[in-house]
Specification:
By secondary structure, this protein is an alpha/beta fold. The chain has a single domain, classed as Roll (2,3-Dihydroxybiphenyl 1,2-Dioxygenase, domain 1). It is built from 2 helices and 8 strands, in the order E-H-E-E-E-E-H-E-E-E. A 4-stranded mixed sheet has the order 1-4-3-2, with helices on one face. A 4-stranded mixed sheet has the order 5-8-7-6. The longest helix is centred in the first third of the chain and has 11 residues.
Length: 120
């Protein structure tokens, strides 16, 4: 039974910070908020999607940001996204080259590392 695709990645966030998640993932990154199933709404958090990529943010009571583990989101027009992130006050940083891609990292409002990459 081969794995067919990645359905979503879940990142942790602190309680009560859904507005910050909506600003970053919704307004800055341009992802669409997805309704959470009724049974999960009481847990807090917020879900987003864009194309085939889904990012679910779930509340973790003893929250610690993911500084090493991270999702890598493939984008088009990496330079424009970088400018948009920086204009919104989110620092970006380069890393070692990855053959076949241009890429950079940024942190979400909670300190979770996100990689953005575009085929070279």
């Amino acid at each position: 039974m081969p794995i067919e695709a990645l359905h979503h990645v879940q990142l942790a966030m602190p309680a009560g910070e859904e507005a910050a998640a909506r600003r970053f993932y919704g307004e800055v990154l341009g992802m669409r908020e997805q309704p959470k199933p009724e049974a999960l709404r009481g847990r807090g958090g917020v879900w987003f999607a864009s194309g085939a990529a889904e990012v679910h943010l779930g509340v973790e009571p003893d929250f610690r940001p993911a500084r090493k583990a991270h999702p890598a989101l493939r984008v088009s027009n990496l330079a424009a996204l970088r400018a948009r992130l920086e204009a919104a006050g989110h620092a970006t940083r380069d890393d070692e080259p990855l053959p076949g891609f241009r890429r950079f990292y940024a942190d979400d409002p909670f300190g979770n590392r996100i990689e953005f990459l575009e085929p070279a």
